[in-house]
Amino acid sequence: xxxxxxxxxxxxxxxxxxxxxxxxxxxxxxxxxxxxxxxxxxxxxxxxxxxxxxxxxxxxxxxxxxxxxxxxxxxxxxxxxxxxxxxxxxxxxxxxxxxxxxxxxxxxxxxxxxxxxxxxxxxxxxxxxxxxxxxxxxxxxxxxxxxxxxxxxxxxxxxxxxxxxxxxxxxxxxxxxx
Length: 178
Prior knowledge:
Blueprint: E1 2-3, E2 9-10, H1 18-29, H2 43-46, H3 50-57, E3 68-75, H4 81-89, E4 107-113, H5 116-125, H6 133-137, E5 140-149, H7 152-169, E6 174-177
Parallel strand pairs: 4-6
Antiparallel strand pairs: 1-2, 3-4, 3-5
């Protein structure tokens, strides 16, 4: 807060936006390490059961009355993604990720949902059906972060902003936003 000459408080023109601060915090919470590091736990690479999904989501559950979740997944770096896409999706890839994932250190996916457990279950167990096409080809291996928002509009804005901030923070990674 800034003060005038007479000592009364005044609002600065350069105050930070609480939304930006919150999104910056989320981008900072995403770890630098990869599932390929030997000491990193990658729970979805071994087990995609509903109990594993619930266990991974539990630390992000709060008692706040917010309903929309924006989540960040780390996905398997699939070198033969074109073949996998043909197998699971039944088509050759004309998708925007063609040619951009080969040199990436990690593959991150940013998504939004009303029901986090159901959405992760679809990503992991319904490839190409009710799960996203991207996660049918690049299978999720771990949940990196979840943030909760009180409105659809706020969550949609957060999803785009988080993806952009992750691209800025991790330029060697490929960040896909649905």
